[in-house]
Amino acid sequence: MVIGTISALLFAFVLFYGWPKFREAPFYQIVCCLTITDSLHLLLQWLIVYPSLFGLVPEGSFLDWLQNSVVGQNGLDFTDQALFVFVTLITLNRFAVFIAQPLLILFTKRTTPITILVSLLLLILLCFFREKAQSGKHFDETQMMFSHQTQESTGENTIQTVMAVIQYTMPAVNLVCYVFIYLKLRKQRSESISASKSSDRGLLIQAFIESCLLELMRIIDMIPQPADDPTGMSLVSMLINTLKTISSVVNHTCNSLFFLTTNNTVKGVLRSLPCFQNCSHPSKRRPPSVSSVNVSKITLTSKHKNSENS
Fold this sequence. Notes:
The protein contains 12 helices and 2 strands. The protein is mainly alpha-helical. It has a single domain (2-308), classed as Rhodopsin 7-helix transmembrane proteins (Rhopdopsin 7-helix transmembrane proteins, Up-down Bundle). A two-stranded antiparallel ribbon has the order 1-2. Strand 1 and strand 2 form a beta hairpin. The chain is globular, with a radius of gyration of 21 Å. 30% of the residues are buried. Residues 281-310 are annotated as: Disordered.
């Protein structure tokens, strides 16, 4: 949790510092939204889940109000859902650059904000109708999660099933897209350029890890509480709830860590921060130009550069 918060805040600061250059590439507009989602989720974890874990929520306090507010009741779940949306949009952007160029119409400087907005509106509608079919949502301090007292089976089950199917299939679809990207890059690379092949493998490995983590989060989230433990105080229930929290935090942590450690453009901006410049290169204080958008350690060809920056 601490590592995730530090990495998310650091990556957000890097994006802010280098935004005059980052905004030239629509890809980073999606990355920015993903980073905001991760930061909000981790913030809500600190304000809602962890204080309850240590009994630090006095009745009538701000934290108690937050747990019972609309933001508190829906924030954690919504940011989890938004994570899937933005990771999928990043995958579609990369797939459009390398494989399906006609899809680049969705990821130009003008259309990328529209694509993001439409995706979020669809997600909000799905979450709204799902919550409307449920009632009595409250934060259970014993289980460290929000739960519903009652459910209307017809509407809730239909929307819940649709969202579950989408969330289970998206990680697999994302991984398939990255496999096609990997094969396309391998075909274009010269066999003698081992560094490029290593970068290609790194992209595929990163995509595989992200897809597995997302899929694991959905599987853990669907594990029901034991029927003979309605209070959620048994060891099995506490283990299940702890795994749900950990899987959610890990998924909202890995994105910023991957970008900070594998993306050459992000690492270049990070090294140009004043605190790093004072330690190593005092004369270089300007963030590097993002003339070519390096996506997960890949050096794009000129054709790909023009496509992604369009």
